[in-house]
């Protein structure tokens, strides 16, 4: 069973329940509809334990643009939420391995968010991913779902140590990081902060000063990249997770990620314990240890 089948059955149930409340319906027709409703409910219940549910996030604002309990400035609400949406589409493209340094963001339309309503109890919005065009396994995750989780993790990490921040930063392209920084700029320039609530976690900036510090930590001045060369042997690889383990001739063991440009990371398994020289990009956040990225295989 896939995502399309599940969502189709859920839509059918919604339609049948509306039909059952229509005025003037005959008794026999109602009995038939009720039987189909029970069948649809049973189907969804049997298949719903690991059912796909669209990713959702609750984005709320605090600060100068928020007027007490009355409202939020429309211009700020629109521009800040747009910047948040752009950050999500950029991260989604980054984790899919299709985000270039310049040009249109790939799959931007399908990776956008829907505003499904106002955030209750505060000023902000309930946002939800647009249903994907292609079918996914019922337990599948989408790039948008991953992007929401990564963005929430990244924003929280900007308030922690350099070492903790370097982990989510190491998974993203420079352009995606810049998009997150642009969102924080929109907040700081308007003396505002935000809170994010997802299905699995919640993060809230304490105030606008913390937003400004977080933005500074995502700046190019704080994120350094250098090309480094190592000679040694690959001693392990997880192709699905795109991570590798490499032991240098000096005995140092390094771990790193495999860039999306490498189409078949499993090829490394055929060259384990064979001495090679690799070139990696080392990314450092402030005083953190380097995070390595392998962008090409040494034998190609």
Automatic annotation (TrEMBL):
It comes from the Bacteria. This is Uncharacterized protein. It comes from Pseudomonas jessenii.
């Amino acid at each position: 069973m896939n995502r399309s089948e599940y969502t189709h059955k859920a839509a059918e149930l919604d339609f049948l329940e509306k039909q059952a409340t229509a005025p003037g319906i005959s008794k026999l027709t109602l009995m038939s509809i009720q039987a189909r409703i029970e069948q649809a409910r049973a189907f969804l219940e049997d298949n719903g334990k690991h059912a796909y549910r669209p990713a959702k996030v609750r984005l709320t604002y605090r600060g100068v643009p928020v007027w007490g309990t009355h409202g939020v400035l429309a211009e700020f609400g629109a521009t800040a939420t747009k910047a948040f949406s752009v950050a999500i589409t950029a991260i989604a493209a980054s984790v899919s391995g299709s985000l270039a340094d310049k040009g249109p963001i790939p799959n931007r339309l399908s990776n956008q968010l829907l505003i499904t309503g106002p955030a209750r109890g505060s000023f902000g919005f309930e946002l939800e991913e647009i249903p994907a065009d292609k079918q996914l396994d019922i337990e599948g995750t989408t790039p948008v779902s991953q992007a929401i989780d990564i963005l929430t993790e990244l924003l929280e990490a900007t308030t922690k140590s350099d070492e903790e921040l370097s982990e989510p930063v190491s998974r993203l392209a420079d352009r995606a990081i810049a998009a997150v920084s642009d969102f924080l700029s929109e907040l700081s320039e308007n003396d505002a902060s935000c809170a994010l609530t997802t299905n699995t976690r919640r993060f809230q900036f304490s105030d606008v000063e913390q937003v400004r510090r977080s933005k500074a930590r995502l700046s190019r001045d704080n994120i350094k990249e250098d090309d480094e060369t190592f000679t040694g042997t690959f001693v392990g690889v997880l192709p699905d997770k795109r991570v590798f383990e490499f032991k240098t001739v000096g005995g140092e063991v390094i771990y790193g990620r495999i860039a999306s440009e490498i189409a078949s990371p499993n090829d490394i398994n055929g060259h384990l314990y064979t001495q090679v020289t690799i070139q990696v990009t080392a990314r450092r956040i402030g005083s953190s240890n380097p995070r390595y990225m392998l962008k090409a295989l040494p034998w190609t």
